[in-house]
Design a protein that fits this description.
26% strand
Length: 525
């Protein structure tokens, strides 16, 4: 046994018994990893608190060993700088603290991409964006409003295991470049979630794949340069013939040609991604026309234009290096620690001193964690929020608050937020303070995610060549080298942009221009 998880029913209110049990376990065997539920999340949701503690207990030994091994290897190579790791809340944590916060890194990869997309979009003047990351196996989509990603309080992991920790609200579906196209029992064309993965991968990669994937369809339709495969050192040219042969087997029962079948596969996967994008916008009362789409990932720019068109988004932003944007997110993020505590009392029964005492304790804990991190930070920011509801309601509403507010001010803030969310309040029904949360953020020294160019080009961009690309029919399409696109250049679709980490498709009826930060902005003409 490597880890012990302790979870008592009311430990959120009084953690004394959990702490005593932890002492007993450690006295029995000092090298056990012992996790007390209140140390992971101090809230009254007993099932969610327990499941989150179990995730922490499962991961803590693994992550602790990883952190120790990485620390030793870096020391052996005389690496003298600090090592920070991304968390699921979009903040960083120093490597020595990683084991104790193992559950906080469950979905850190997608969170890093959202943080980078929000940063780049903000610099370019887009404060509210939809971020979309399409890689080899999945499509991750999130919403950023006023440069702040939406944060989910609870996230269901696989097998519907709830994780009660603040995480950037990223929705993931099985739609990527390696997603396999097939006919279901009813003869309906489906794409994913099953994926060819890296091995064997798409058929055109020549690694033994036998089932057609999204990438195979992009290659067959000329959207990917078959003569210059990205990242395939073993292959000088994509095997378009093998991909066409596999698509032919899929096309026969559909009664379609090979190109039409490939186009149908792309239409299906684009529709699936657009549907999930609408779920986070239209179905949440948000108008996609008020957002720009930041598309990234190795496969994202191939499909961004189709998603943009189907959802009704007006502008798409392509960062300079879409294929590695998640790595940039790790570089630009700040430190962050989230603390929470259940109160569950009528607001009328509380005084300002009661609330301020809890907020002060959380503030102290957060600032202590920032200090213990040992990371050089330029500014410390502490924000508070209150989870509130009308008595009898199951769901609460999170409201930003400040220390020192009277209970009357808290009530007014809740009623304003409730009215904005639901159109009206519930009148004189008493209000409950469900819980208080605090975020302690350590702002690191900022670097521009993309330096603005001092010299701007004029006029249209010059194509490096042309290629036949399928857009409902074969069209001779200009091909642009991303490294030669400079700020101020403009061009119209259809067009293909090629670069070392991805390929971008710009559909007919769209225009593109390069902004001062070297982002490519695509708009519907």
């Amino acid at each position: 046994m490597q880890a012990v998880v302790i979870s008592f029913l009311h430990a959120y209110a009084n953690p004394g018994h959990e702490l005593r049990a932890k002492e007993i376990f450690l006295a029995t065997k000092a090298d056990w990893q012992v996790v007390a539920s209140h140390e992971v999340v101090r809230e009254y949701y007993e099932f969610e608190r327990t499941s989150t503690a179990v995730v922490q207990g499962y991961l803590q030994p693994l992550v602790s060993r990883y952190a120790d091994n990485l620390t030793a290897k870096l020391a052996a190579r005389k690496f003298a700088r600090q090592t920070l790791v991304m968390q699921s809340n979009g903040g960083l944590v120093p490597l020595p603290q990683l084991g104790g916060r193992a559950a906080n890194i469950v979905r850190s990869g997608p969170a890093a991409g959202v943080m980078a997309a929000a940063r780049i979009a903000g610099e370019a003047g887009f404060r509210s964006v939809i971020t979309a990351d399409m890689g080899g196996t999945s499509y991750d989509v999130a919403v950023v409003i006023d440069e702040r990603p939406n944060i989910a309080e609870t996230t269901d992991l696989d097998f519907r295991v709830p994780l009660r920790l603040p995480m950037i609200d990223v929705h993931t579906i099985g739609a990527g470049g390696g997603s396999i196209a097939y006919l279901d029992r009813g003869g309906i064309l489906q794409v994913g979630p099953r994926s060819a993965g890296a091995v064997p991968g798409p058929i055109c990669f020549g690694r033994g794949g036998t089932e057609p994937t999204v990438t195979d369809c992009d290659a067959v339709l000329g959207r990917i340069n078959a003569d210059n495969p990205i990242g395939l050192k073993h292959l000088k040219r994509l095997d378009i013939g093998a991909a066409r042969e596999a698509l032919g087997k899929l096309a026969k029962p559909l009664g379609l040609g090979i190109e039409q079948t490939a186009e149908a596969v792309l239409t299906v996967v684009d529709h699936v991604m657009a549907r999930r994008t609408r779920l986070l916008t239209i179905e949440q009362g948000l108008d996609p026309r008020d957002f720009a789409l930041v598309i990234f990932g190795g496969a994202g720019p191939l499909h961004g234009a189709a998603i943009m068109r189907e959802v009704g988004i007006r502008t798409m932003l392509l960062p300079p290096h879409p294929g590695v944007l998640c790595a940039l997110g790790c570089a630009v993020a700040d430190l962050r620690y989230d603390l929470s505590r259940t109160i569950e009392r009528p607001l009328a029964d509380l005084g300002t001193a009661d609330i301020d005492g809890i907020l002060a304790e959380q503030r102290r804990q957060g600032l202590d964690l920032l200090t213990q991190s040992g990371v050089g930070i330029e500014q410390r920011i502490v924000t508070h929020a209150a989870n509130m509801s009308y008595l009898g309601q199951i769901h609460s509403l999170r409201v930003p608050v400040e220390a020192g507010w009277s209970t009357g001010r808290l009530q007014q803030a809740f009623e304003d937020a409730y009215r904005k969310e639901n159109g009206a309040t519930l009148g004189d029904i008493p209000i409950a303070l469900v819980g208080l949360t605090t975020a302690a953020i350590g702002i690191r020294r900022k670097h521009d995610a993309g330096a603005a160019a001092a010299i701007q080009s004029r006029g249209k961009a010059t194509a490096s060549g042309h290629r036949e690309v399928w857009f409902g029919g074969w069209i001779s399409t200009p091909i642009y080298d991303r490294t030669k696109l400079t700020p101020g250049m403009r061009f119209a679709g259809p067009a293909i942009i090629e670069q070392a980490d991805t390929t971008t498709v710009i559909e007919p009826g769209m225009t593109a221009r390069v902004d001062p930060f070297s982002n490519v902005l695509v708009e519907v003409a």
